[in-house]
Design a protein that fits this description.
104 residues, mainly alpha, AhpD-like
C-alpha cells in the first residue's frame, strides 16, 4: 500500500526495515519475529500480525512459544488483545495446515 502513495519513500522504508533493522545481529531472526509479533498483538494490528506470524513460523519459531507470547499479553495489553492475537494465530495455522498444534 505504501507504494500507492509514494514509491520512493516506500522503497526507503522497506530497505530500512529489511536491510538495516532486520540485519542486525543482536537478536536472531526468530527472536526478532517473536518480538514483532508480541508488539503487533499488543497494538492489536491484526493485519500486520498475520504477516509476521507467518514470517515467524517460516524462520523456525516454535509454535508453542508463539502461543505463550500471546498469553503474556494479558497483564500488559488486556484479554481482548490476547483473544485477537490467538484468533489471528489460529487462522494462520489453519491456512498453513498446521492446526491444531501438536504437543511433543
Amino acid at each position: 500500500m505504501w507504494k500507492e502513495f509514494d514509491r520512493e519513500l516506500a522503497n526507503d522504508l522497506s530497505l530500512f526495515i529489511t536491510g538495516n533493522l532486520y540485519s542486525r545481529k543482536v537478536l536472531t531472526l526468530p527472536e526478532r519475529q517473536m518480538v514483532a509479533c508480541a508488539m503487533l498483538a499488543a497494538l492489536r494490528a491484526t493485519d500486520e500480525l498475520k504477516l509476521h506470524v507467518n514470517a515467524a513460523l517460516n524462520v523456525g519459531c516454535d509454535p508453542r512459544k508463539m502461543t505463550e507470547i500471546f498469553f503474556q499479553l494479558a497483564p500488559y495489553a488486556g484479554m481482548p488483545a490476547v483473544n485477537e492475537a490467538l484468533q489471528v494465530y489460529r487462522d494462520v495455522l489453519k491456512e498453513r495446515g498446521e492446526w491444531p498444534i501438536i504437543e511433543p
